[in-house]
Design a protein that fits this description.
Number of helices: 2
Order of helices and strands: EEHEEEEEHEEEEEEEEEEE
Shape: elongated
Radius of gyration: 26 Å
Distance between the termini: 24 Å
Oligomer: single chain
Number of domains: 3
Structural class: mainly beta
Number of strands: 18
Length: 287
Amino acid sequence: MVVTSIAEKWCGVSGGGRKDGSRHYTRVLSVLCDPNQPPDGPLAIFGTVGIPRRGDVYRTTDGGDYDPGAFALAAEAKPLGDFVWEVTVEYSTIVDEVPADEDPIMRPSKWRFGYQRIEDVSGKDWQGKPYKNTADEPLINLPGRPCHLLVLSITRNELVYDPLVLHAYLDAVNSDPFLGFAPGYAKIGTIEPSEPRYENATAYFEMLYRIEFHPRKWHPLELLNQGRRARPAAGQPDEPVQEANGVISGQLVLLAQDGTKLAPGAAEWYEDFTPYPEKEYSALNLV
């Protein structure tokens, strides 16, 4: 079975807030499957990325409704035809204990935050000041500085995984907002599947997702526009930078956006680069 689309049919408060302060929600999803593939059962539906599982935080598809204290407690998949399913998910702020014989796929994911120290090199300091000397020459050997990445490790059980998808997301930077971080701040360090596991008549894999958050952003990578060649005027071919007497200096000089030498007192120009692939993290259904 190949799921082609997941749409939110209805979501809202079920029972509302109670005297004990608990909150309860219900979501109803419409799941369409590829009619060119043989139909399958609810186990395959719940193994699809994008379908909530037990322990997932209450959040609508568009992110408009969100309650970080409410978790999915139960889910039911009902066929409306050979290739159309309706999935109902119940959420609550009251979390019961997980039964010992529960389907391992429905167990909540495990989150753990930590830090990793790296040596970071940037063209400017934390205040945005470019690294250059008092003669406005760019520094060649930029100083490295200790930098700590916020690291999130998510472990969850999945029925199947696609090695091509794992490979595509490796080192991918988020192109959409993720956990409150704007695009460009998160990068997937690794996605590691376990060996096949068997429990309660279910075969599954334990997947480890490691996401690294950079304090300055992974993307865009800003590099100071500089070089030993410059254009005499915009649109003209570049040539070696020369001293006033016509001698080729061989020194790095700051360049403007058009490739000419940066005028005295003008603001430095940075070129933006994207050294890593970019992917939508929402497709992984990690939160």
